[in-house]
Amino acid sequence: MSKISVAFIDGHPIMMDGLISAFSRVQDFQVVARGTSAADAVNSAVVHKPDVLVLDLNIDGNAYEAMSKINGKCPNTKVVVFTGLVGVEYALRALELGASGFVSKGSTAEELCKALVAVVGGETYITQRFATQVISALRDASLRKRAAAAIKLSIREEQIVRLLLRGKTNKEIANQLAISEKTVKHYMTILMQKLNARNRIEVVLAAQNLSAEHKYGPTVYRN
């Protein structure tokens, strides 16, 4: 398997050095370019044609304009925004201008690696803690579907989501799936983390956003 070529564009020298040092040690990646401005971003994409360009929003020049140009001139280069400007509005604009990923600088290096692999594979990656908010706010239906696909649920989690949307209690879910109530609570904790929900009601609301894209319809379960 060939290495994933990466270009880093970041306005902070220390962050840049850290990123390049970290990714240079990972055998699946090859750093091919670096820069500090919007102009550098476009030039790096055109000249080096990396598989992925990791772009900070806080750089000299207009990062969004650079994103749009890269999307037009270099459609095979995926853009992943990696920024400290965390918020749904930043992610929305980036995705609508052609970015394939949006990762908070509060994330781990492991999550950034995961994001790069995902977008090269044709997926969309959004920092999990506000992914469901982004999905509900996206105007473009195709983008919503791509973003919703970034939140991966296991088969059991999907089963529980379907039953939650039908208003089932933990006890009823446990009976229908032939598992213990304690196990249901365990999965609810996982769903709260994945859907950035603080309680059961928020899990249901987030699941409603997901269900619109994943079409979690009625399913017959056999114990």
Query: Order of strands side by side in the largest beta sheet?
Result: 2-1-3-4-5-6
| Average pLDDT for all residues | 84
Uncertain segments: 217-223
What string gives the helices and strands in order?
Answer: EHEHEHEHEHEHHHHHH
| CA distance, first residue to last residue | 43 Å
Query: Which structural category fits the helices and strands?
Result: alpha/beta
Describe this structure in words.
The model is unreliable at 217-223 (pLDDT under 50). The chain has helices at residues 13-24, 38-48, 63-73, 88-96, 109-120, 131-137, 141-149, 155-165, 170-177, 181-194, 200-214, and strands at residues 4-9, 29-35, 52-55, 78-83, 101-104, 125-126. The chain has a six-stranded parallel beta sheet, sandwiched between helices. The chain is elongated. The protein is built from eleven helices and six strands. The chain starts with a strand and ends in a 9-residue tail after the last helix. Helices cover 53% and strands 13% of the residues. The longest helix has 15 residues, at 200-214. The protein has 223 residues and is α/β, with parallel strands linked by helices.
